[in-house]
Amino acid sequence: MDRVPVPARLRLPPRPRRLHLAACSMAFISVVLAAALAGCASSAPVAYRGLSSADRLTPAADAEAPFQYRAPAADLGGYGKLMIDPVELYTGADGQFGSVSAEDRQIIADYMQQQFRESLGTKHQIVAAPEPGTLRLHLTLTGIERSTPVLSTVTHLMPVGLVVNTGLEASDRNGTFLGSVTYAVELTDASSGQLLYAYVTRQTPDALDVTASFGTLDAAREGVRIGARHLRDKLAEAPAPATAGASPLVARQ
């Protein structure tokens, strides 16, 4: 039997392929973002047991530095010089490196050494040996989270990802698939060895910072830069250095 031709006006229009693909892409991104949100509760830093200051660190109401210690008589602003130890790679069982390779850990440790020296050197004279009026900085790298480059970049550029990351930034959380760096800061009087200030911190880029999403270690590097600036600013907020030649602690005792 011959087929009866269907009038053109009654034919169903072809499915808009581009719209279909766009809808599928949005659905895929939504699923990916949902998975990211379900697993984005990154490991919070702890008072790592292997730190020399571990027995003095106490919980603090500070999201950036949840464990801290500060000596009652500490006058960090009374020091005009700074001695920086080589960055230590933490090897304790409570470290938070996951599957990050030894090579990548060393890359970030070396980057920390460079960035903290450059940033703090703008406010302090960097010295190689203990002198009166000198702070000694010891940094311990305790954890790294790698970014997932392609997914991180895509979820930062898509409209739905932008909305999600805006919410994450407002709640001070990691951006989708962005990494982070965790480390300990210990500041002592270089002459006496007395611990003055210590804290553990986890640093990650702003959730909306797409520039930190391209490489697996880009977010950790940006976290290092942020942390170095924050320590520089903390030390700069204190009063001017004490009289040259005298330790700020000794001068008050």
What's this model, at a glance?
This protein is an alpha/beta fold and 253 residues long. 34% of the residues lie in helices and 18% in strands.
Percentage of residues in helical conformation: 25-40%
Biggest beta sheet attributes: 8 strands, mixed
| Alpha carbon gap, first and last residue | 111 Å
**Number of beta-strand segments:** 8
Q: Report the radius of gyration as a whole number of Å.
A: 25 Å
**Structure classification:** alpha/beta
Order of helices and strands: HEEEEHEEHHEEHH
| Shape estimate | elongated
Helix count equals 6
Mean pLDDT: 77
Give the SSE map.
Layout: H1 17-38, E1 58-59, E2 67-70, E3 81-84, E4 88-89, H2 102-120, E5 125-126, E6 134-145, H3 149-157, H4 159-170, E7 180-189, E8 195-203, H5 218-236, H6 248-252
Parallel strand pairs: 3-5, 3-6, 4-6
Antiparallel strand pairs: 1-2, 2-8, 6-7, 7-8
Helix pairs in contact: 2-5, 3-4
Describe this structure as you would to a colleague:
The chain has 253 residues and is α/β, with parallel strands linked by helices. The chain has one domain (18-38, 53-252). The chain is built from 6 helices and 8 strands, in the order H-E-E-E-E-H-E-E-H-H-E-E-H-H. It has helices at residues 17-38, 102-120, 149-157, 159-170, 218-236, 248-252; strands at residues 58-59, 67-70, 81-84, 88-89, 125-126, 134-145, 180-189, 195-203. Strands 1, 2, 3, 4, 5, 6, 7 and 8 form an 8-stranded mixed beta sheet that branches. A hairpin with a 7-residue loop joins strand 1 (58-59) and strand 2. Helix 2 packs parallel to helix 5 and helix 3 (149-157) packs across helix 4. It is elongated. The N and C termini lie far apart (111 Å).
